[in-house]
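#structure-requests
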Amino acid sequence: MSELRITEHPILTPEKREEIEFFFRDRPLKAYKGEMISTALFANGIRIFGEHYKDGSPQGIFCANGQCAQCLVLADGLAVKSCITEVKPGMKVMPLDGLPALPGDDQAMDTSHIPEEFETEVFIMGAGPAGISAAIELGRQEVRVIVADDKHIPGGKLGLQTHNFFGSARECNAGMRGMDIGTLLAGELEKLDSVDIWLNSPVAAVFSDKKIGVVKNGRFVLVRPERFLVAAGARENALAFPGCDLPGVYGAGAFQTLVNRDLVKAAKRLFVVGGGNVGLIVAYHALQAGIDVLGIVEALPECGGYKVHLDKIKRLGVPVWTSHTVLRAEGDGILERVIISEIDKGFRPIPGTEGEFEVDTLLIAVGLSSVNEMFNKAREFGIECYAAGDADIIAEASAAAFSGQIVGRKILQDMGLEVPIPGEWDEMVKILRSKPGKIYPLQGPNIGSNKIYPVIRCVQEIPCNPCAENCLLQSLSIKSESIMALPTFGGRCAGCGHCVSICPGLAITLVDEGYDNTREKALAIIPWEMPEGTIRIGEVRTTTGFEGEVIGQGRIIAIREAEWQNRRKLVYIETPFNEARLVAGIRIREPASKMAPLSVKAADDAEVIVCRCERVTKRQIMDKIRDGCRDFNALKAELRTGMGPCGGKTCIPLIWGIFRECGVDLKEVEPHIYRPFELEVPLRAFIDETEEGKE
């Protein structure tokens, strides 16, 4: 259909899908049935969806999750978010030309619809890992549960995660790929007769009469639960800098949606802001999709993500600049280049350290915020409510699933049912939610009498134990009751490669010193998850070490693939004997260097868009604050911040930061008042439909 479709992937298996035709600006285009409008546009090379009604600025995607409104289009005459609206055969998609016209008096509609009401014992907002895990616990006790989610399939962000998960192999399926865990949990949920799953059904509001509003498949309904669990996950944080609103600058989660869910090659040359787990993982996912990653910048002196994620990126040839930030993104209506700079301890750019990169995509991965507005409102209105997963505490998905189990049982106990919550569960969820711990010096391999042995490059305290749980000879172990401890090897090695295949951090290799009796050569056996054809048998390639340093040259002599390896390959590299134990990876690209730009435009707060919906700049907000404004609602009244379709989800956290930047004590600031609805609800959701009438 298009060269931008991913037809081969090292982990994902593209399926044959039905093609349909739709129109954009009256131009016929091909799409796949069931995909979102934004995905279909990207697959056809269209990244500018329209222009903003206020200033004509180009608009594209940002969140691809229905949280913002940057991707608005007209679909068959209706204004919709293209990232959550399915493309239909023959659909006519147009940019928003100004604001959509309101219906005339001759198009009056009967809006006398009285919403259908549902009662349930427990209502769960979110069918991600936390929500599903809680629903399973409740459903096994035959509790009546409704689970509502705004997506068309359950699993939440698990469906976007192609990598093996960390955590405990026994308690939370560590070692499995995230998407497989999502399928497993969804399958368990479907077996439970007392659990009703509402997909394509976003939760829109919590009301003071203790009812919850849901747009159930396009119809507004009300739910009156006895108990309410918010497991809505998290939304990505935004970052404000000149050019941050250009099409091509968007969230890492949006990129994963396009690439891993929709199999669209959403970029050619990519840059990432943020060295946490999300930024490091999304860079790896881009490489898996055949997309070049020019680099990652992190404002802190060290990346906050797991060191194993950082190391595997460096081994492939992706540079990571710490104590750096993005100064600006530039382009003629669409992203064409990004300029970065080193920063001092006060996070101020250091003149003369700038670097310029020509890219078409800049991903923002600067942390997450809990989607907890519904929980706060429910508690305010006296609803018996709970929170689980990222809606409670931001952590890894394995922690979200485990916390869902615990909260599910807590609800059962509050209902008077005698179900145990093992004491070690609380300790486990604390471990799974913990930040990366101490980093130890890399130790040499414990060879013993083995001619083949593992080299373990896991040197940071992180919650993980699949290697120890899957060693056939039980020679890999964690000598502590806590899975935060480092794995060690001692005993015999069968050379089976199970540890190499299951390690979530790709941090274990095997060395075969018995390969060459002259001891001039040896084999390094490494994990591999890059696209077919990236390396070939017989090639001599540059080998890299623990932290991406060049080791030397190695010849690819075999690529082993078996079903038990769970889509990970084992690459056998012939190296000089004394290099084999140092080899941890293969470089697939030469690291990009910072090229000094010809000129750097001075920073101007007037060109920094903070409120994307209403095109409000940082300078406008700062001027109001310096004039004495200490009330979010006053800013809203004067500048329309938070008045757009996203309801302030993107700009409000940024505005808090601007108050701090202006030296304002945040205790002096009157916060934004949240009122129903939390998201846009189209009027047609309230329209009375009868057999005789039409919308």
